[in-house]
Amino acid sequence: MAHETGAKHLLAYSDSQLVVKQVEGTYEAKEESMIQYLQQIADLKTKFHHFQIIQIPREENAKADSLSKLASSLEDCRTRHITIHYLLRPGPPGCPAYKRGKTGELLSLNG
């Protein structure tokens, strides 16, 4: 998804020490499925000027989880427009900033 939007630099976060170390090449992958994933990552890394993966604590991984779910839900992001809003402050208690529409899309309640 990042490459298709024209990104040249990619900073990836994972809460899995094993995955981070395997991507960095510090640990060796033994399972065939992981070896295949690592090959895909190696191929994708060549499409960026700079790629870095950083391990973060599991409790700080909410953004990464959201982005991975978004990426896996898109078949071809070139045909979709995605708007991501970062709220500088939370809304009033009990008032969510977004709600789900009938087809699952996020609708802004802030206007």
TrEMBL record:
Domain RNase H type-1: 2-70
GO molecular function, one term: RNA-DNA hybrid ribonuclease activity
InterPro entries in the record: RNaseH-like_sf, RNaseH_domain, RNaseH_sf
Record-linked Pfam families: RVT_3 (PF13456)
Protein name: RNase H type-1 domain-containing protein
Species of the source: Sesamum latifolium
